[in-house]
Amino acid sequence: VRLTPATLLSHLEKGCDRAYLLFGPESLLVDEGCARLRQAARTQGVDEILRFTAGVDLDWQQLHESTRSLALFASRRMIEVRLPTGKPGTTGAKTLISLLEEDRDDIILVVVAGRIDKRTQAANWFKMLEQKGVVVEAAAVPTGKLPRWIEARLLARGLRPESGVAKRLAFYVEGNLRAAAQEIDKLALLLPPGQGLTIEVLERSISDQARFSVYQFVDSCLQGVFERALRMLTTLRRDGTEPVLVIWALAREARQLVEMAAQIDGGQSRHTVFRHHQVWSTRSTCVGAALERHTGTYWCHLLAHLAEIDQVAKGRRATVGSPWAQLERVALSMCGINTGSGLSF
């Protein structure tokens, strides 16, 4: 049986199965699925939950022997086994198959993993889990569906988001469900149930967090306010923000500006281009200023330069000056200040 995280809850309301496999790239959904499974198991008579991690504190043979001794007791137990690599190994696969073949009523077997490749999904232990138990795959939430996922979660937490809030938060978290969930949890604590959630409230909530202030730094560069941009860059560095996160945010913006500049040069109106690229009214001024300040060629060259800085930040390329020093020159260049370092293009 195959389920999704969304259908797991209704399944558990009917009772727990004997075996589960929860896996997928969305670790938040995997973790939440495990939590729901544990809660359902406790309400249905499970007295003890034993957790093991393959390669850390798990001896497969000893695990199998211990499950046999559990049969002497009337109580039910859940055995949760985590597979960090997504593979149990030869001994682990044999143990899982043996446990599944026994069809025990006193044990709920739960296997937890991250990504599992197609080849591993064709293995006997995986297919037997799917045949005799329940497989829950936490697939990645597509970017286009993330706003809907966020809105549903906001509503579930008793918040009433106004139009545009879910899309704005989706932009900030860029597909990171855990970051989105943490922000929603914080908003639920800040606002009374049923209160409307506006974009202004959302902006105030995220303004002091390093992950989100990266975007404010980018907007300062687009606006051409170099003093504020440099001050924010210094703060990001002091707070321990990874330079690759700053590089990624700048590159994402530059990539979009390359496309927008080409479309405007091709005769499309700025209003049409902004609407196509979902540039909100609150950002139209800074994005428009950046397009007036620099050409599409500039943004192309900047994108290539950011790729070089990214290699330096990851230790794959040697150069003069730290990534932070180079990012400072990039910020000045974006603001229209010639740094004399070849970034004026």
From TrEMBL:
Keyword set includes Lipid metabolism: no
Name listed for the protein in its UniProt record: DNA polymerase III subunit delta
Family: Belongs to the DNA polymerase HolA subunit family.
SUPFAM superfamilies: P-loop containing nucleoside triphosphate hydrolases (SSF52540), post-AAA+ oligomerization domain-like (SSF48019)
Organism of provenance: marine metagenome
Residue span(s) of domain DNA polymerase III subunit delta C-terminal: 215-336
GO CC terms in record: DNA polymerase III complex
UniProt record, GO biological process: DNA-templated DNA replication
Reaction catalysis annotation: DNA(n) + a 2'-deoxyribonucleoside 5'-triphosphate = DNA(n+1) + diphosphate
Record flagged with keyword Nucleotidyltransferase: yes
